[in-house]
Amino acid sequence: MAIWKSQAPTLLDVARLADVSLKTASRVLNNARVNEDKVIRVKAAMERLGYRPNELARGLKAQRSAAIGMIVPNLSDPFTANAVNAVQEVARANGFVVILASSGGDVDVERSEIVSLVGRQIDGLIVAPADSRKDSFSDLLPNGVHAVTFDQQLRNADLDSVTVTNRRGTREATAHLLGHGLKRIVAIGARPHLYTCRERVAGYRAAMKAAGIEPRVCLVDHEGMLTPAWLKDQVFDLQQADAILSLNWVCTILSLRGLRELGKTAGRDVPMLSFDDFDLADMLTPALSVVKQPAEMLGREAATLLFERLKGGRVEPRTLVLPTSLILRESCGCRSLS
Amino acid sequence: MAIWKSQAPTLLDVARLADVSLKTASRVLNNARVNEDKVIRVKAAMERLGYRPNELARGLKAQRSAAIGMIVPNLSDPFTANAVNAVQEVARANGFVVILASSGGDVDVERSEIVSLVGRQIDGLIVAPADSRKDSFSDLLPNGVHAVTFDQQLRNADLDSVTVTNRRGTREATAHLLGHGLKRIVAIGARPHLYTCRERVAGYRAAMKAAGIEPRVCLVDHEGMLTPAWLKDQVFDLQQADAILSLNWVCTILSLRGLRELGKTAGRDVPMLSFDDFDLADMLTPALSVVKQPAEMLGREAATLLFERLKGGRVEPRTLVLPTSLILRESCGCRSLS
DNA sequence: CTGAAAGCGCTAACAA
DNA sequence: TTGTTAGCGCTTTCAG
């Protein structure tokens, strides 16, 4: 039996049917102290009418919406998808819903999405920032609406954040490659304005420097520029790569494809190691060695941090750094280590 | 400069500052006819106060929320992620936000998420149902809240839906495999209660029947049961597979892994074709042949259908069927067709 | 074209 | 414990 939205039963209807006052019905709804039998009457009435509280009205009054916003640059990235999944789960467990928006990596879109979310009275926000050079959005947040960033970390912002050991990840990866006797390892990345990119490059440089070898970094502003031609020119002709360290998932995919176009097989003709694991990386030939990020955990921790804030917890911003792990398969030069 | 949530400027503040009545300010907000100079004064006031309309209040009054709900079984599936992405874009273009929930393929979770969404006064719902044997949720929708299903199609439901040519997809794929001289083609699928599974199996059977060959279908209730041991027992020992047709992405991944555990290489030792394309399917060795679904388009069309309904369009339910395409790479038995 | 006033569904003073 | 009564921020009759 359908409920008519235009005439959905209200709490007043429930109260009338149960023959109690509106307030009493409200108290029952909120599990406040109410006479035993009235509780029963009210609950019966709710049942009979198929009553559903109007969260909008509830939120309007209470100045909260039981909704959090989440903004990511790109849902197609498996890392992101997994993080979103985890956030969603934690939110649900806390009785919250998540309003998802994607920025496409564009700060302006990101800002406009945030404005839209704030207008909907979200209680909190989780964002994987599109630009981490500066705090690009906390000016949009009303006092009382907390935000936590994940993946990226903002400069000059006092927000909670969850990141991974980007630097250590690439440092170890690079060191491993060096251990295979590789010298002209080229780091390929995109969007140099991102924290993750900077950190990963820094880790790479550190490892190269420690080995007394000149670092070779090839970055593009935007992933779209990472074409086979660019690979050939920059990475091979110019830098004479004898190994590749790809700094994120999209770069990995594009590099893999690009290499093939150039008639090379990643991992065989040119050893390769990639930041970010993904389904089937282990099924490539040779299997791709990666630095794995705990995507679900990132999402879970970000959400947990946010909900602790919402519950009125601590004041000083916290920064959580989760460990990456080096997964050695074959493409780095190891043979059937798995 | 931060805005205080507790004391965020209201329309009344704007009106006072602009020295007009509340109603006039409201009219400006809604682009109704208002005196030119008053419009300017009001807009200036809004600007100065950093006024943001409270969508909750707006929605409460107007009985709508400018939000749609979306429920999917599994965000990690790239097909789903892409569809969500597209829905999000269309929603944004229409000034709507999307509240995302995932059911994990569980009907009860699905129902409870819908109840939650309805309580938030969503204006519409897009869902990839967790079970398509019957209409499992439209009883939860208040009159006036429309739903459109995508991917799956519900039995006995008069909802708008967007699906793909599942049957034709597997029929063509099977025919192609048969064309390579393969006979003991085994279709591997999961969740037989799903429309997509049924349809894909039907397409497979049709092609086998047309060729006068006994069909060999191996289904598991849940993807978790698709283990290497199961593959060995059911698919190889029992059915003596000489080719595999995997019916969805998860099955593909699990089959690929399972085959490797059994010491076989998909596409080389046993030809394989998979429903659902994904990043890097083309980078496997041999490259995986697939039936590709237009994921983004599915999402876009589902959202479009929904918004047309919201704008009060037609009454009779519509069913959109989008074309799949057979992408022949190598694993089906073709060699370097790409 | 504009203003006053009444609510949307709910919660929270404040009394009783 | 309960009921009465204001609102939350906005839209919208209904007069002016």
TrEMBL record, chains A, B:
<keyword id="KW-0804">Transcription</keyword>
<dbReference type="Pfam" id="PF00356">
    <property type="entry name" value="LacI"/>
</dbReference>
<dbReference type="InterPro" id="IPR010982">
    <property type="entry name" value="Lambda_DNA-bd_dom_sf"/>
</dbReference>
<keyword id="KW-0805">Transcription regulation</keyword>
<dbReference type="GO" id="GO:0003700">
    <property type="term" value="F:DNA-binding transcription factor activity"/>
</dbReference>
<dbReference type="GO" id="GO:0000976">
    <property type="term" value="F:transcription cis-regulatory region binding"/>
</dbReference>
<dbReference type="InterPro" id="IPR000843">
    <property type="entry name" value="HTH_LacI"/>
</dbReference>
<dbReference type="InterPro" id="IPR028082">
    <property type="entry name" value="Peripla_BP_I"/>
</dbReference>
<keyword id="KW-0238">DNA-binding</keyword>
<feature type="domain" description="HTH lacI-type">
    <location>
        <begin position="9"/>
        <end position="62"/>
    </location>
</feature>
<dbReference type="Pfam" id="PF13377">
    <property type="entry name" value="Peripla_BP_3"/>
</dbReference>
<dbReference type="InterPro" id="IPR046335">
    <property type="entry name" value="LacI/GalR-like_sensor"/>
</dbReference>
<protein>
    <submittedName>
        <fullName>Transcriptional regulator, LacI family</fullName>
    </submittedName>
</protein>
